[in-house]
Write a structure and sequence with these properties.
Chain lengths: 320, 488
């Protein structure tokens, strides 16, 4: 499996949850993973119910079998200052640049520099080795910007390399691009079985492929079981309302007769959704990208839910 | 659910009924505290000629753009002359307004009933930026700017351009005074606050020493001018040159010098738009879905708007689930489903051999065909789990082999009335779990911000495809705040 796992997805599809579950799944059996966040939303801290993450790699979870998940909220400004210190021993100058507004300029105004710093830091973590020679992290999982911006975000290094045609930023951007375009990286897109996210996923894949970025999996999140389909609902709604009322009454449910209509309406909505989901699944199949499906968590995405999703991912072959 | 479908009226009344019955039934837990929460009245807001700008903001994926479009349709059909400025609409949404591809110019939307007008456009940030340059610089200078590599990257979309340009466009539309209502969708930002921060960030950059430093050499005639700078500054430029590469620094410097005279205008306009947003004619609608993250972001936004003295009209809560049978709790529904399934299994074990699909009017359980245990995972797997969501194996079985999983409900193998009823109950239990969770999430928001008026929009199974779909959402929006219980 690729060592840099980038997880993107339309807003509201649960990409942060999926990224966290993936980090947990990959850490199973004594592995060490780093989960990075690049948008300053502190989504990881909220998910793991810990305080806001500092700009520091910190252990946030233990995986089954003794693995460890570390987390890092990458901050572009701190990454730039680190970078200046690391390569130029410019600690003091960094502060002076900050006072001048140059750091602000570099991290918010200057096109792409921010994204280069964010992806650069993630790539650094991918390549980092311990003194003994092994990789510090077996896998790095990135909770990346949403599908609509992912290609631009990852590809910005190319643009920056073109803009800064010489110098350290140019070199840095090219080094990052080499990792991102290699099999070392896989970009996953999280979606729901709904029209807009599926359409965005299809567009996202086309853009990634156009930019020669490695597409990993489509991860269909929040898949709910199909309990009844149209045929069943049609059968129920026919002449059998009385039978259903009797069956309900037999279970001791009060007011059984009045429940029949609302229950059947819900069933009709369910059947309609099943049909829509079937269509969307068809659209996804045409994309010819391997697909994982993860179940809907009725109780919401809490820590227990994360471990459940991680287990699901293992079953689907993640980290195997 | 990504949005409502065209199936207009089925849901609205039914869901309002659901809310009421749910509210009274759940008074022990969910219903409390909601009475205090005022309803958001959308119609008075869009009908008021004093309302000139409505800004829809919120986290990504909550239906912001759809809400903006639905508001536009409704306001136009109630007689106003409206323009909707969308930032990045889904193709389907543009098509639902009868416009295949929206662009940087407002286009009239056909098919609007009543005396009003609807125009729609999509922000093209590069085009907007180019237009500003062309309008504010002489042709030669404009060309120099447009050809500058740094400008080309900047205008094509660095983090933040979209926000500045959305502000610019809003200011332009308002200045043209052709519309009496502008509905704006905000950019899908890294942070929802970027939109508000854009003018200040631009201001602090333009006021900063850094830009003066960048401009200095160009103003003083290139590198020769450097010696007039103090040593610290030239060291700084040296560092920058080293870091960025000399050629990029020169591009930046040329760009900044060329833009110099335009910066003031930028700044003035951004400040003016910012003040416009604070003015009484503007109303902010925070859009969210009843999910933890979306409502957390909504709460953050509400606080931020208050801090910036921006006028908040209320919260639009999309995709709220209701149930017409809300008095039957998830637990009771599941228990009843298990009851039905157990009795069936008992009968089966007793070796009865009645034919499948016989709809005996008797309430006694009908046994399925003798070989039926296997092809019915969805109905028989989870009685012990006490939860509606599938156990992991069940889901994968269901999905990887849909035909076998569904065989229990195919016409060829018609389910018994008990199986069907148990299925209905399980579906209901699933719905009730969603309802309770949404309620809890919403209560948390209401506890933090009891003053915020809320309009709820009932969840629908599909997406919007046409004006009728947008109208349906508009109806729900308008009625979603009138239920005093307001609970989902």
């Amino acid at each position: 499996m690729s060592r840099l796992q980038v997880v993107s997805g339309k807003g509201g599809t649960g990409k942060t949850t999926v990224a966290a579950a993936l980090a947990l799944a990959l850490a199973t059996e004594g592995k060490r993973t780093l989960l990075v966040e690049v948008e300053g939303r502190q989504g990881i801290a909220q998910l793991f119910e810990t305080e806001a993450l500092p700009y520091e790699e910190r252990k946030i979870a233990v995986a089954p079998g003794g693995g460890e998940v570390y987390a890092l909220a990458i901050d572009a400004e701190r990454a730039l200052l680190d970078y200046l210190q690391m390569f130029y021993k410019l600690g003091g100058a960094g502060r002076a640049l900050k006072k001048l507004g140059a750091i602000d300029f570099a991290t918010t105004i200057a096109p792409g520099v921010r994204d280069v710093l964010l992806t650069g830091k993630a790539c650094e973590a991918v390549r980092r080795r311990e003194k003994q020679g092994g990789y510090t992290y077996d896998y790095v999982v990135m909770d990346a910007p949403p599908t609509g911006r992912i290609t631009r975000f990852l590809n910005v290094n190319d643009e920056v390399a073109g803009l800064a045609r010489i110098g350290p930023i140019h070199n840095q951007a090219q080094a990052v691009m080499r990792v991102l375009k290699s099999p070392e990286t896989a970009v996953h897109l999280v979606t729901l079985l709904e029209e807009m996210p599926v359409q965005e996923t299809a567009d996202g894949i086309a853009e990634l492929q156009e930019a020669e970025l490695p597409v990993g999996q489509v991860i269909v999140n929040m898949v709910r079981p199909h309990l009844l389909d149209e045929a069943a609902v049609g059968a129920a709604d026919g002449d059998h309302r009385d039978d259903i009322a009797k069956a309900l009454a037999a279970t001791g449910v009060p007011g059984a007769t009045e429940l029949v209509s609302p229950l059947l309406e819900q069933a009709a909505e369910h059947a309609q959704r099943v049909e829509l989901e079937r269509e969307q699944r068809g659209v996804l199949e045409k994309l010819k990208v391997p697909t994982y499906e993860l179940p809907y968590l009725g109780e919401g995405a809490d820590i227990a839910g994360l471990y459940r999703l991680a287990k699901e991912l293992r079953k689907l072959g993640v980290g195997a | 659910m990504s949005g409502p479908d065209t199936d207009e009226n089925r849901g609205a009344d039914e869901n309002r009924g659901a809310r009421e019955s749910h509210g009274s039934d759940e008074s022990g837990d969910g219903g409390r505290g909601l009475e205090a929460c005022p309803g958001l009245e959308v119609d008075p807001l869009i009908d008021d000629p004093g309302t000139r700008i409505i800004v829809c903001c919120g986290a990504g994926g909550v239906g912001k753009t759809t809400t903006a479009a639905a508001l536009g349709v409704r306001a136009a059909e109630r007689g106003r002359k409206v323009v909707v400025l969308t930032i990045d609409p889904a193709r389907r949404l543009a098509q639902s307004m009868g416009i295949d591809s929206l662009d940087n110019t407002p286009r009239r939307v056909r098919g609007i009933n009543g005396g009003g007008e609807l125009h729609a456009m999509m922000l093209d940030m590069k085009r907007t930026f180019d237009e500003i340059v062309e309008a504010h610089a002489d042709p030669e200078r404009a060309r120099a700017i447009l050809e500058n590599p740094f400008y080309q990257s900047l205008s094509a979309g660095f983090a933040g351009t979209q926000e500045y340009m959305a502000m610019e466009k809003l200011g332009q539309l308002r200045a043209r005074d052709e519309w009496d209502l502008i509905v704006v969708d905000t950019p899908p930002s890294r942070s929802a606050l970027d939109f508000l921060d854009a003018p200040k960030r631009l201001g602090s950059f333009l006021d900063g020493k850094f830009i003066k430093l960048l401009m200095a050499p160009a103003k003083m005639g290139g590198r020769a001018g450097m010696k007039f700078l103090n040593v610290g500054m030239s060291m700084m430029t040296g560092t920058l040159g080293k870091l960025l590469g000399g050629q990029l620094l020169r591009d930046v410097q040329t760009f900044v010098a060329a833009m110099d005279t335009m910066f003031g205008g930028f700044r003035t306009r951004a400040d003016a738009t910012y003040r416009l947003l604070q003015a009484p004619g503007t109303a902010f609608l925070v859009v969210a879905a009843p999910e933890r993250d979306a409502l957390r972001e909504a709460a953050y936004f509400v606080e931020r708007l208050a801090a910036e003295e921006m006028p908040l009209a209320g919260l639009v809560l999309n995709r709220v689930h209701g149930s017409g049978a809300a008095r039957l709790s998830a637990e009771r529904a599941l228990a009843a489903a298990e009851n039905l399934e157990e009795s069936r299994i008992v009968d089966q074990e007793a070796g009865k051999t009645a034919g499948r699909g016989s709809w005996a009017p008797s309430p006694e359980p009908e046994p399925p065909a003798t070989d039926s245990a296997q092809p019915q995972p969805a109905l028989t797997d989870s009685p012990q789990s006490g939860r509606t969501e599938a156990s992991p194996t069940q889901v994968s079985a269901d999905l990887s082999a849909p035909s076998s999983a569904r065989s229990s409900v195919e016409p060829a193998a018609e389910p018994t009335v008990e199986e069907l009823t148990a299925g209905l109950l399980r579906l209901h239990a699933e719905r009730m779990q969603v309802l309770v969770r949404e309620q809890r999430t919403r209560d948390r928001f209401t506890a933090l911000h009891p003053e915020v008026a809320v309009a709820e929009v009932a969840a629908l199974p599909g997406d919007v495809h046409d004006l009728a779909g947008l109208r349906a959402i508009g109806d729900r929006l308008a009625t979603g705040g009138s239920s005093p219980a307001g609970a989902a």
